[in-house]
Design goal:
mainly alpha; globular
C-alpha cells in the first residue's frame, strides 16, 4: 500500500474525539437536528451498503469449520450479537445513572468500573472500525469514502452520548483511549491480514453496534429528538448510496 490514503479518515475520526467537547451548538434539548441527521446517515449506510456486503461475505463465512453448525446460514447473527452487546452495556450505564438520581450510594470504585467497562467496549469498537478503514483502502477509494463519512457522523453521535454519561471522566481519559484504540486498529492492518470470512464478521458486529448506538441516542423521550432530521439524513444518504 503506497499512499496510505486511509490515514486521513483516521485523523479526522481522531479529531472528532479531540474536539467533540467544543461543539457546543450540538448540545441541549431538544436534540440537535445535526445529531439526528448524522444518526440517520449512519443507519442508512449500514442497511444499504454494509448489510448487502454481508450477504456477499456469507460465502466466505461458510468456509469456516465452525460455520457449519453455527453460522452456516446467518452471518447476521454476529450483527445481532453486536447490537445485543451494546444494548447490555447501555442498560448497565442507564441503571447506574438511575441509582444516582435516587441518591443511593454508589461506591467510587464501582462507578469507575462502569466507566472503564463502557469505554473499554467502545475502544474495541473503535479498533475494529480502524481496521476496517485500512481494509477499505485495499478495496476501493469509493468504499473508503462512503464508510468514512458514515463513521465520522456516527462518531459525533457517540461522542456526545459518552460525554453525557461520563462527563469529566470521558473528557480527561475516555476520549484519549478511544483515539488510541482507533489508531491501533488501523495500525494492526499493516501486520495482520484477516481472512475475508473474519472481515465479514467484523463488519457484521460493527453494523449491529452502529444501529444500537444510533437508536439509543434518538429514542429517549427526554431527548426530544427530531425525527424529521433523522429521516432526512437517512433519506439523503440512501439516495446517494443507491445512485452509485
Amino acid at each position: 500500500m503506497e499512499n496510505y490514503v486511509s490515514i486521513w479518515p483516521v485523523v479526522i475520526l481522531a479529531l472528532i474525539h479531540f474536539f467533540g467537547t467544543r461543539l457546543r451548538f450540538l448540545a441541549g434539548v431538544p436534540r440537535s437536528i445535526w445529531l439526528s441527521g448524522a444518526g440517520g446517515v449512519s443507519v442508512a449506510y449500514v442497511f444499504l451498503h454494509l448489510f448487502p456486503e454481508l450477504s456477499e461475505g456469507q460465502e466466505h463465512v461458510e468456509q469456516l469449520n465452525v460455520a457449519e453448525t453455527f453460522l452456516s446460514h446467518h452471518v447476521y447473527l454476529v450483527a445481532l450479537i453486536g447490537l445485543a452487546v451494546f444494548y447490555g452495556l447501555e442498560r448497565i450505564v442507564v441503571e447506574q445513572r438511575y441509582q444516582q438520581k435516587k441518591k443511593e450510594h454508589v461506591e467510587p470504585r464501582h462507578e469507575q468500573g462502569f466507566f472503564w467497562l463502557h469505554i473499554g467496549s467502545f475502544a474495541i469498537y473503535n479498533a475494529l472500525i480502524g481496521y476496517i478503514l485500512f481494509q477499505r483502502e485495499e478495496e476501493s477509494l469509493q468504499n473508503l469514502l462512503l464508510f468514512s463519512v458514515a463513521m465520522a457522523l456516527h462518531f459525533i453521535v457517540n461522542d456526545f452520548g459518552l460525554q453525557e454519561h461520563h462527563k469529566n471522566s470521558y473528557r480527561r481519559y475516555g476520549r484519549w483511549v478511544l483515539v488510541a484504540a482507533l489508531i491501533m486498529g488501523w495500525g494492526i492492518g499493516f501486520v495482520v491480514e484477516l481472512p475475508e470470512a473474519l472481515v465479514a464478521l467484523v463488519l457484521a458486529f460493527v453494523g449491529g453496534g452502529v444501529i444500537l448506538n444510533v437508536l439509543k441516542e434518538e429514542l429517549p423521550k427526554e431527548r426530544e429528538s427530531r425525527y424529521w432530521a433523522f429521516a432526512l439524513g437517512a433519506g439523503l444518504y440512501a439516495i446517494l448510496l443507491l445512485s452509485l
